[in-house]
Amino acid sequence: MRLKEKVAVVTGAARGIGKATALKFAKEGAKVVLCDLSIDSLQEAVGELKDMEAEVLAYPVNVTKREEIQSMVDDVVEKWGSVDILVNNAGITADNQLLKMPEEDFDKVIDINLKGVYNCSQIVAQAMVEQGSGVILNASSVVGIYGNFGQTNYAATKWGVIGMTKTWAKELGRKGIRVNAVAPGFILTPMTEKMPDKVLDMMRDKSPIKQLGTPEDIANAYAFLASDEAKFITGTVLSVDGGVVV
């Protein structure tokens, strides 16, 4: 078990990549803290983890609300003594072309996908500094590296996450904290599964291996980066994209 007794906080943990990451971490021996806004989905995820006999805590946390994050972190530290891993997975899309994008949609995506990562990381990092160790993992995207039609707001946040990742790796390394990012490609999630077959086929054809990724593919990358196997890796962006940008 690569993460035995580690305390891992996962935001956006109720479904998709976040849920797969929580399940993977639990299999690797971690105590898992689930954060999400969807209460029903959160309870379902908790049930799955308890079926695995995993230790789990769950909190309805809005990553734009610093007081909710602080309350969660304080409670986790009081109950379990530390926060060893943070996975900043929570995020949304509100796609549109630049000339048609409402300002409120731009602001909403920035607030959750970018400032939300800042909020969670700043608060959790304070606890990690006190304990002298920790790992912060941020969800970027190939869209953040290469851009994508109709995703001005989303691409901006995912590029911004890369900048924060590299900056925090430099600032926090001396305090025993590693910071990395994962950049997924086209992943089959509850959101993408609703797309027309022809769109999914197009996405699949862009990969040299003619596959779409699964949430478990991303969870595996997070588990590696969170473990001591990656103890000499910080400030990097790991693309898990099936070669879609080759």
UniProtKB/TrEMBL annotation:
A single Gene Ontology biological process assigned to it is: fatty acid biosynthetic process
Pathway info: Lipid metabolism; fatty acid biosynthesis
The alphabetized UniProt keywords are: Fatty acid biosynthesis, Fatty acid metabolism, Lipid biosynthesis, Lipid metabolism, NADP, Oxidoreductase
Q: Which residues form the Ketoreductase domain?
A: 6-185
Matching entries from Gene3D superfamilies are given as:
NAD(P)-binding Rossmann-like Domain
**What is the designated name of this protein?**
3-oxoacyl-[acyl-carrier-protein] reductase
Active site (record annotation): 154
The source's domain of life comes to Bacteria
**Gene Ontology molecular function terms on file:** 3-oxoacyl-[acyl-carrier-protein] reductase (NADPH) activity; NAD binding; quinone binding
